[in-house]
Design goal:
The chain has 3 domains: 29-103, Endonuclease I-creI (Roll); 114-273, 2-Layer Sandwich (Double Stranded RNA Binding Domain); 281-357, Alpha-Beta Plaits (2-Layer Sandwich). The chain contains 11 helices and 15 strands. The protein has helices at residues 3-25, 40-57, 65-73, 106-114, 116-120, 140-151, 161-173, 181-189, 245-273, 293-303, 332-341, and strands spanning 28-37, 80-90, 93-103, 122-125, 129-131, 134-135, 155-156, 193-206, 212-224, 229-242, 281-287, 313-318, 321-328, 345-350, 353-357. Keywords: Signal.
């Protein structure tokens, strides 16, 4: 058997299947839900509520007010029960696995509505892309990720093409965003979070029918530009076939972008809540002038009486006021409430940044 031909045919099949997957999930998100009951009807009836619980918990922390609100208010008419994948009866109990689906982005949009601070957070997507070591002027993976975030109700910054191209070159030259790069990006884009990384497509070779086969890899980072903190990092892979190198390469990048777009909205939502797989978020707190060292020291002492506010850092104290960095596991609204309980007045909130005054 010619294993090279088999392997190339497998790549072609993978490309077609991954493209179909990305296209399918662009309309509905489907989960397999296991339920049990005394009979078929009772077991099947549980699938809708358990499906909603599973979908909401992908984006919101169970037990929080936002989780309870979305679970209560999510429109049941949007939920679709699909095929019964497995079914068996054991000791008089019926066990089955049922497909449950909702429109893509519906749960995320409901979560954003339940979290006003999240709705205000501005997100930029800047991902340099390469096909065969040549930069791509109009990246496909970046577009799919931005589309996925927007369809989930998140606020994505739309910079001019000239600015975006310049920022891609900046990210390509300084992928870790060290030094003043994060601050410069934040200023130029007027944004709070940056979804960045790199994507590249490489030629696999010819496949059946004289088509070209390409594989793509996308490495994504979610960065809090206020503090420069890396909130999440993940890699994705995809593939495609096409009549030419350019078509196959770009389609592979588009497919891997769609795969990432299916999971990134939930990751961003959990990062903004300070939960899930994302790192604990570092919030920037600015205190409006006039500010004295005595006032800041007293504030730090009051805040450190709270066990969740131990790693506080004073970044600056000058004529423009004071700047603090506060790692915190909750949301920006929860942090604002803690600061007000410490005697401060919260006068502004944008993304991960709070403005206070004494």
């Amino acid at each position: 058997m010619n294993w090279e031909i088999v392997q190339k045919a497998s790549v072609a099949a993978l490309a077609l299947s991954s493209g179909a997957l990305a296209q399918g999930t662009s309309e509905r998100l489907t989960l397999d839900i296991e339920v049990t009951g005394q009979d078929r009807d009772r077991a099947y009836a549980q699938a809708m509520e358990k499906g909603i619980e599973a979908l909401v918990s992908r984006n919101l922390t169970p037990g929080t007010a936002a989780y309870t609100q979305v679970l209560r208010d999510f429109p049941r008419a949007d939920v679709r029960l699909g095929r019964i994948l497995r079914e068996q009866t054991v000791a008089g109990q019926v066990y089955m696995t049922v497909q449950v689906s909702v429109p893509r982005g519906a749960v995320e949009r409901a979560a954003v509505r339940a979290l006003p601070a999240v709705a205000q957070t501005r997100i930029a997507v800047v991902i340099p892309e390469v096909i065969l070591r040549r930069p791509v002027p109009d990246p496909a993976a970046e577009t799919e990720i931005a589309r996925g975030l927007i369809s989930s109700g998140l606020r994505v910054v739309d910079a001019s093409q000239q600015v975006t191209n310049a920022l891609r070159e900046m990210v390509r030259a300084n992928p870790t965003l060290s030094g003043t790069a994060a601050a410069e990006l934040r200023t130029r884009l007027n944004t709070d979070l940056l979804v960045t990384g790199e994507a590249f497509a490489e030629e696999y070779g010819s496949v059946a029918g004289g088509l070209r086969g390409y594989t793509a890899r996308l490495e994504v980072k979610v960065i809090d530009l206020a503090s420069g903190q890396l909130l999440h990092s993940q890699a994705f892979q995809g593939s495609a076939v096409g009549a030419t190198d350019a078509v196959a390469g770009k389609t592979a990048l588009m497919n891997v972008g769609k795969i990432a777009a299916d999971v990134l909205p939930g990751i961003v939502l959990k990062a903004l809540q300070g939960s899930g797989s994302a790192a604990q978020r570092a919030f920037v707190v600015r205190v409006a002038p006039p500010v004295t060292f005595t006032q800041v020291n007293a504030l730090m002492a009051r805040l450190k009486t709270n066990v969740s506010l131990q790693d506080l850092t004073v970044r600056t104290i000058d004529a423009a006021g004071a700047s603090l960095e506060i790692p915190f596991g909750g949301s920006v609204l929860e942090l604002a409430a803690l600061l007000e309980s410490a005697g401060m007045q919260v006068v502004g909130m944008t993304g991960a940044e709070l403005t206070l005054k004494f």
